[in-house]
Write a structure and sequence with these properties.
Blueprint (H helix, E strand, L loop, with lengths): L1 E2 L11 H23 L12 H14 L10 E8 L1 H9 L3 H6 L2 H4 L3 E8 L8 E6 L5 E6 L1 H4 L10 H7 L15 H14 L7 E3 L8 E10 L2 E10 L2 E10 L2 H39 L10 H22 L4 H40 L1 E2 L9 H33 L3 E2 L18 H26 L2 H14 L6 E2 L3 H20 L1 H23 L2 H24 L16
Helix pairs in contact: 1-12, 9-11, 9-13, 9-14, 10-11, 10-13, 11-13, 12-15, 12-16, 12-17, 13-14, 13-16, 14-15, 15-16, 16-17
Length: 569
């Protein structure tokens, strides 16, 4: 980090550091990328498009459910996942058996949920769930069962959703007059269509909220049983789904962990971050002599704009379909606007306050101004440092994953709410990398470290405290036990702190952006369609492009034009 008044010059990258970056990238590729390319991993299998899913759902509705298309029809396609079942398989190391026995083809945990809305109706007329790889229909619902379909959790019973939403419809008892024999007779053609051997089926005595439940004794994954679930309306099947369910003890464990994660997020991350925001406002005023209130306006405005684009990208798809979903999406968007405004203000005062603190308290220049001589070359050198350190961080993260897997037996599950398959434009996913790199490094490194150091008198302890706060903000990710993510990110966060203290704010910001951009770019590339593959590649190189543009707009001064940098004080 340069001192105030010192000509701008970034630290050179040593040969050892560059080699460490190469090693880190190789470790990341071997243990995080290559496994996705192995047969049966799913990473080398193309997923059908949403337009293909719609065509398949419409064909199934016409041929199997007897529905004739009308001009006012609207199909809404969402990605749903059974995170409970996948998490159980991940935890018990059953994913290989699940794939090897081709159970993923007949009983997928990931589906495209196609819901049909007709003109003038607020609820779905029918729904069809499709295998995302083959396009084969694996479940359906119609009438009240379709209207009561849950959110993005494929494993949740539709009857539960009806109860939660206040519906008076009791799906399991919609036809209380049907005898067990009549229900079996109605279910038989559907079991035959899906090539189910009746000899392997036993009727569940307690069908819960379903009208009829079979258990298949011939197929089992650990303690997870295969069920065929039916509901009935009149003299027809109104709901059918076959699939596995995780044991109750697994769901109880996840609920307990999630409850703990919410508390840690609130008290370990939310309140300390709010306190930092208040202190950033105070010290922006107290140190205004050593900084400028104009400096953070552009970056904070860009941050707000990106947050709005990101929010729209997610909520525009989740708000498709029913009137209730649209109203919910509008309310959520308003909440996101207010939240985005608050976070952008936090960023603004962290930039201003952090810059003033370092200049006044330490005489250091962590965030150089564009008008300072050598700024363009400094940014370009910071970009190079950012890429090298991002490669190192990817390797460190991979090693942490391996260590945590061997010591804590950590595991992860799916989350449809943040999936690019539920975004209007999946290729916009990587904008989140810029949000994180800009705001988190400003709040927890640029401002946070120097602010906390005023209290603890130690740079390392200050870095550790702000890193822990930052790490606890990631406990709600679907990774268990929830302690594993803070442990991993404490190591990563201390490295970010080191990069900031040694190379300055611009370098650490770009190292964070590149780190996240590579992870998100890889996600897009694995989606395999041309648009997202191209977007993934651009995502990975975009930080360099941005840095180079800054360099071109701030070319090095000729020797006779160079002016010494004057201290602000």
């Amino acid at each position: 980090m340069n001192s105030v008044g010192q000509p701008l010059q970034q630290r050179p990258l040593t040969t050892k550091l560059i080699l460490a970056g190469i090693v880190g990238l190789i470790v990341f590729a071997l243990f995080q990328i290559m496994p996705q390319l192995l047969p049966g991993s799913g990473g080398n299998t193309a997923i059908i498009s949403k337009s293909e899913a719609q065509a398949q759902a419409a064909a199934f509705a016409a041929s199997r459910l007897g529905y004739e298309a009308s001009p006012g029809d609207e199909w809404v396609i969402l990605y749903k996942t059974d995170s409970s079942f996948y998490g159980y398989m991940s935890r018990e190391k059953l994913l290989e058996d699940y794939s090897k026995n081709k159970l993923d083809q007949r009983y997928p945990f990931d589906v495209y949920h196609a819901a049909l809305y007709t003109s003038g109706e607020v609820d779905a007329l029918l729904t069809v769930d499709l295998n995302m790889y083959t396009g084969e229909a694996v479940a359906f619902a119609r009438g009240a069962d379709a209207a009561a379909a849950p959110g993005l959790d494929y494993g949740e019973m539709p009857a539960k959703a009806a109860v939660k939403s206040g519906s008076t419809a009791n799906l399991a008892s919609s036809e209380p007059g049907l005898s067990l024999e009549q229900k079996e007779k109605l279910a038989a053609p559907w079991l035959q269509q899906w090539n189910v051997n009746p000899a392997n089926l036993q009727i569940e005595a307690n069908s819960g909220n379903y009208g009829l439940v079979y258990t298949d004794s011939s197929v089992k994954l650990g303690e997870s049983l295969l069920h065929y679930n039916f509901n009935f309306t009149g003299s027809s099947v109104s709901y059918y789904r076959a699939g596995f369910s995780a044991p109750a003890w697994h769901d109880t464990y996840v609920d307990e962990q999630t409850s703990l994660a919410k508390k840690l997020t609130l008290f370990g991350y939310g309140l300390p971050t709010l306190l930092l925001g208040i202190l950033a406002l105070i010290y922006s005023i107290l140190r205004q002599k050593y900084t400028s209130f104009k400096r953070g306006i552009f970056l904070s405005s860009v941050h707000f704009l990106i947050m709005m684009v990101s929010s729209y990208n997610v909520l525009s798809e989740s708000g498709s379909g029913s009137a209730e979903a649209r109203v919910t999406a509008v309310i959520m968007f308003i909440i996101y606007v207010l939240y985005s405004l608050l976070m952008s203000l936090l960023l603004y005062f962290s930039l201003v306050g952090g810059d003033g603190l370092w200049r006044k308290e330490e005489g250091l220049n962590p965030w150089p101004r564009a008008k300072e001589p050598g700024y363009g070359q400094y940014v370009l050198d910071s970009i190079r440092a950012g890429y090298v350190w991002a490669f190192i961080l990817l390797g460190v993260q991979t090693i942490m994953f391996i260590i945590l897997s061997l010591t804590l037996n950590n595991w992860s599950t799916t989350d449809a709410s943040q999936s690019p398959y539920n975004m209007k434009y999946a290729w916009l996913l990587p904008v989140v990398a810029w949000l994180a790199g800009l705001s988190e490094e400003a709040v927890y490194r640029l401002f946070g470290i120097r602010m906390v150091k005023k209290l603890v008198r130690s740079t390392f302890i200050a870095s550790l405290i702000t890193t822990l706060v930052w790490a606890l903000g990631h406990t709600l990710y679907p990774i268990y036990p929830i302690s594993s993510r803070p442990i991993e990110l404490t190591v990563i966060g201390l490295l970010f702190s080191y990069i900031f203290l040694r190379y300055g704010f611009i370098a650490v910001m770009f190292s964070h952006v590149v780190f996240d951009s590579i992870l998100m770019g890889a996600t897009l590339i694995f989606m395999q369609d041309k648009v997202n593959v191209g977007a993934g590649i651009v995502t990975i190189i975009l930080p360099f492009i941005v840095g180079y543009i800054v360099y071109r707009f701030n070319p090095p001064h000729k020797p006779d034009q160079a002016q010494p940098v004057q201290p602000l004080n």
